[in-house]
Write a structure and sequence with these properties.
The protein has about 260 residues and is an alpha/beta fold. Helix content is about 35%, strand content about 25%. The chain contains 8 helices and 10 strands. The strands form 2 sheets. A 6-stranded mixed sheet has the order 6-7-8-3-9-10, with helices on both faces. It has a 4-stranded antiparallel sheet with strand order 2-1-4-5, with helices on one face. The protein is globular, with a radius of gyration of 18 Å.
């Protein structure tokens, strides 16, 4: 049985850190630099959106920082643990115990109820859920009357809320979202974003979310903008209009280059 995840530290602690992180695919004529010495910190109780033009490296950055992809150079840490020093089994355990994931695809098991899907990672790890924490998540996600329903009996927005609650269930140090509202209509997307915002404010979670949507980014505390594999700008307390204006500038710069 694995060791349970540590209780969260004080708000404002650095939960994840990238230091001169680089990712290169191929070699010679096929060499592509997806990330070029990217450095950034992500603090507890902070919601960060990552944006950039297509091919800017934003999803690659998230995957490397989350331990889903290897680094070519540099460093990625979660909760002070250097990912590059871990063996495969250790990395799997860290992702299971310290990291939550929310993707476009809900990835719910169709034969399980909502509550069974939410607690599945804990069951696989041989851990009992912290009932008080689970109750807080269920209250925050707003699906108390749907916990006995299977995915086919839930709307897309409700399924993504179940997936979001599952990401929170192990009380991870950090949650990574890769276009978590990409398959939802605007209303359902707003519900998920409000839930993520509430989990940061009320549960002191840390969220790093890749998105192409300025409205989604406006729910974050800050936005990091990537272009050509580098962080080229940062915006605090974003609004959708300001984010859209920044993105237009990057798109114009990309066309010029």
């Amino acid at each position: 049985m694995s060791t349970p995840a540590a209780a969260p530290g004080p708000a404002g602690d650095v939960v994840a850190r990238a230091t001169r992180l680089s990712k290169v695919y191929g070699s010679g004529d096929t060499r592509v630099v997806a990330l070029d010495q990217v450095s950034a910190e992500f603090r507890r109780g902070e919601f960060t959106a990552i944006m950039g033009p297509s091919g800017s490296g934003k999803s690659t950055f998230l995957h490397c920082l989350a331990g889903l992809d290897s680094l070519t150079d540099g460093s990625a840490q979660i909760d002070g643990v250097e990912l590059g020093t871990l063996k495969d089994r250790q990395l799997t355990r860290l992702r299971r115990d310290r990291v939550g994931f929310i993707f476009q695809a809900f990835n719910l098991l169709p034969t399980l109820t909502a509550i069974e899907n939410i607690t599945l990672p804990l069951a696989i790890a041989g851990r009992k859920p912290d009932q008080a924490w689970l109750d807080r998540i269920v209250a925050t996600v707003g699906l108390a009357d749907r916990l006995g329903h299977r995915p086919a009996e839930l709307s897309g927005g409700q399924q993504q809320r179940v997936a979001s609650a599952r990401a929170l269930a192990s009380r991870p140090a950090i949650i990574f979202g890769d276009e978590p509202t990409g398959n939802l209509d605007s209303r359902a997307g707003a519900e998920i974003l409000s839930f993520l915002r509430d989990s940061v404010r009320d549960l002191e979670q840390t969220i790093v979310m890749v998105t192409h949507d300025p409205v989604a980014a406006s729910y974050a505390d800050r936005v990091l903008f990537l272009a050509d594999g580098r962080i080229v700008d940062e915006l605090a307390q974003p609004t959708a209009d300001v984010v859209l204006d920044r993105m237009k500038r990057f798109d114009a710069r990309t066309r010029t280059n």
